[in-house]
Amino acid sequence: MTKYVKTVILIVVLLSISAVVSFITFIEVTGNSNRIFPGVTLKGVSLGNLTKNQAADAVEDYVGSLQGKYITVHFDGGSGRIRVSDTGLQADTDNIVQEAWSVGRTGSFLQQWQERKAVAQNGRKIPFKVTFSKEKFRNSLNDITREVRVPPRDARLVITPQDTVEIVEGTKGTEIDFEGAFEQLEPIFRDDLNPEINVSLVEVNPSQTTEDIKNLRINGVLAEFTTRFNAENTNRSENVRVAAMALDGKMIKPGEAFSFNEVVGPRSQEAGYKNAKIILNNEFIDGLGGGVCQVSSTLYNALLRAGIEVKERHNHSLVVTYVPMGQDAAVVYGAKDLKFTNNLPCAVIIKTVMTRNTVTFKLFGDTALKRNVRIINNVIKEYPFKIAYKNDPTLPKGQQVVANKGQNGYRVVSKMMVYEGNRLIETKQLPSSYYKPLDQVVNVGVKPVQGAPGTGVPSGGGTRLPEDDNPPSVADPPAGSTPPEVNIPPEDANHPGDTNPPEEATQPEKTTPPGETSPPEDTSDPGEDYFQRPVTIPPKP
């Protein structure tokens, strides 16, 4: 090979290398540009030679031009139009711009050059990626089709004022096939189809069928219980009404647990509760929600008679008079609750009945499970109240006035007896109850009487006056006697719905447990409501 030939070959190689380097440099430099290559379009809108930001603006402008257009909707029984803006149309602008910019920038340098050349000659259409708002589209469709849509009607249980149970059968409804209609939106804009949608009507079943209601097995009153209150005590009456009505209509299905406090909620002013007498630390004071315990106690007695399993129950710290001793159920939000589980094979519905001075709970279920129940409460220990004397500088010296009457304490054991006809079939021990005695407070006058020399009364509340060896009998009732204001109603007296099993001795049995000489210690209770005499609630409007 001559020197000349070698020189020519070298020149050709160098030129080739230079051309390749120039080509690669060109492809790389133009690829790093922020502009989209010519020939790239979106629905006829040119995006070529635009920066990413400019292309994004162009896409949004195009979407804006569509918002005022209409889509025709056809359905059996009519037709209508929906504005595109009412479909919630939005473009996936970021992905559209990124895809447009990527044209001619993927693959090898040769592939990029070939793609750019093809796009410049033939163009490249970028897919129109869009999203819609199901909520907006549904609202628009519902408005257009409101005359042909018929909602299904759930079957339901109706308890009449006469306590009969009726089943209102459910009916099927007619609705639009929303999902089928929604799927037709995107192809209209993606594939440039005619802006029309065909909406199908479909039959819809009720969510609760007649068979569902029948399976609840509710056909009448299973048990009921009534207590009375003083209608003139308006605050307490209102508290009873608020709490009782919170329970009205509640359904407890088989196996379901129920909490009184969870359903009734906190006893707050916002919930409508007012100040009335409660028991706090063995004293009667005004507190928010006084009277709610009468509601829980009434429900407790109805539950026992229905044979429903009570999981949690507390007696009051002092005797209350709206139910027999041993049959009360104190509740304090966050501390004491009345809880039960429906252990019956039927559902149970609570019906609240209010009169001017009574509250009644009727438990509806399968009357085939109705029981003949008698509850026996025996006092096994009585704790006489003590007397506390307190000096009163406003009373004439030697005069005594009972400021707070005393109340005996009791320990009570209770049992429930279930009969089938006249035959006793079950005896169940109920939770025992301990009620503290309440001290009787006697104010003793220490104010000097004009013309009589002072004898010097000891300071503070003494138990005896020096000059009086025999205090009046009002301050010293016989041991074991029951103060007049402590009214212990006879068991189950005058409660609607109670049956009358065979006669059984109900005289309280008084025994003294070995070694027990004084009331047992008891920790301070949270506030419980208290009631001393019959009290009332306005009738429900």
Over the alpha carbons, how many angstroms does the gyration radius reach?
43 Å
Task: Please tally the helical runs, counting DSSP H or I stretches of 4 or more residues.
Answer: 11
Overall structural class, as computed from helix and strand content, comes to: alpha+beta
Average residue pLDDT: 82
* Major sheet description: 4 strands, antiparallel
- Contiguous low-pLDDT stretches (5 residues minimum) are 454-527, 529-541
Helix content: 10-25%
Number of strands: 28
Describe the structure.
There is one protein chain. A hairpin with a 5-residue loop joins strand 8 and strand 9 (165-168). 30% of the residues are buried. The chain has a 4-stranded antiparallel sheet with strand order 13-21-20-14. It has helices at residues 3-31, 52-66, 93-102, 109-122, 134-144, 178-182, 185-190, 210-214, 234-247, 260-264, 292-306; strands spanning 40-42, 45-46, 70-75, 78-83, 90-91, 124-125, 130-131, 156-159, 165-168, 173-176, 196-199, 201-204, 220-228, 251-252, 257-259, 275-280, 283-288, 309-312, 339-341, 348-354, 358-365, 372-383, 387-396, 400-404, 409-420, 423-435, 440-447, 528-529. Helix 2 crosses helix 3 and helix 9 crosses helix 11. The longest helix has 29 residues, at 3-31. The protein is α+β, with helices and mostly antiparallel strands. It contains 11 helices and 28 strands.
Short description:
This protein has helices spanning 3-31, 52-66, 93-102, 109-122, 134-144, 178-182, 185-190, 210-214, 234-247, 260-264, 292-306; strands spanning 40-42, 45-46, 70-75, 78-83, 90-91, 124-125, 130-131, 156-159, 165-168, 173-176, 196-199, 201-204, 220-228, 251-252, 257-259, 275-280, 283-288, 309-312, 339-341, 348-354, 358-365, 372-383, 387-396, 400-404, 409-420, 423-435, 440-447, 528-529. It is of the alpha+beta class.
